[in-house]
Specification:
The complex is a heterodimer of chains A (115) and B (111). By secondary structure, chain A is an all-beta fold. Chain A contains no helices and 11 strands. Chain B is mainly β.
């Protein structure tokens, strides 16, 4: 089915471990985004990608790494997890933001707990 | 600076109409999004306004005034399932294409 999926949906990890969150979309959207959502902060952009092999930092990129070798996949890696990275992570994809018909759709989210 | 303001909480009655306001200040502006987010779920796209005026989609309508930096989401014939958080986000113009998000308005619909 067409859509955007994230895995895992829930993850508990220890401080210092590397964690990779996966995101896959089947719409062939050019743009993909990673957000984290925390109480009191709303949605904050971590990284985004305008196309395969093109990525750029968002508002809170420190401690995170992304790659986009294929249009449909946009994994997010926490190189050395810290407790402050405990959050709900949402991946999103969308068409060209310059178009009037622009839409952005979110994946179901990954709830990450760092102990 | 860049900022999005919307009320933190609102309460309304089933069957009524509610208007959720959003004001924004951005260094450049392309358009404004509204999303609905139920507790524990992902945001769901509702609307994207680029031009001034009102756009209607069923029970939901969204309005934009670019000159005033103002938008509202209008929900008609409220249902209990409309109890959710409503997020306003402005799309920044320029090369970064970033969305500036408000903190959301938590709407409680009472019977």
């Amino acid at each position: 089915d067409a859509g955007i999926t994230q895995s895992p949906r829930y993850k508990i990890t220890e401080t210092g471990r590397q964690v990779t969150l996966m995101c896959h979309q089947t719409w062939s959207h050019s743009y993909m985004f990673w957000y984290r959502q925390d109480l009191g902060h709303g949605l904050r952009l971590i990284y985004y990608s305008a196309a395969a092999d093109i990525t750029d930092k968002g508002e809170v990129p420190d401690g995170y790494v992304v790659s986009r070798s294929k249009t449909e996949n946009f994994p997010l890696t926490l190189e050395s997890a810290t407790r402050s990275q405990t959050s709900v992570y949402f991946c999103a994809s969308g068409t060209d933001p310059g178009q009037r018909s622009y839409e952005q759709y979110f994946g179901p989210g990954t709830r990450l707990t760092v102990t | 600076g860049q900022n999005i303001d919307q009320p933190t909480e609102m309460t309304a009655t089933e069957g009524a109409i509610v208007q959720i306001n959003c004001t924004y200040q951005t260094s450049g502006f392309n358009g404004l999004f509204w999303y609905q987010q139920h507790a524990g779920e992902a945001p769901t796209f509702l609307s994207y306004n680029v031009l001034d005026g009102l756009e209607e989609k069923g029970r939901f309508s969204s309005f934009l005034s670019r000159s005033k930096g103002y938008s509202y989401l209008l929900l008609k014939e409220l249902q209990m399932k409309d109890s959710a958080s409503y997020l306003c986000a402005a799309l920044n113009a320029g090369n970064n294409r970033k969305l500036i998000w408000g903190l959301g308005t938590s709407l409680a619909v009472n019977p």
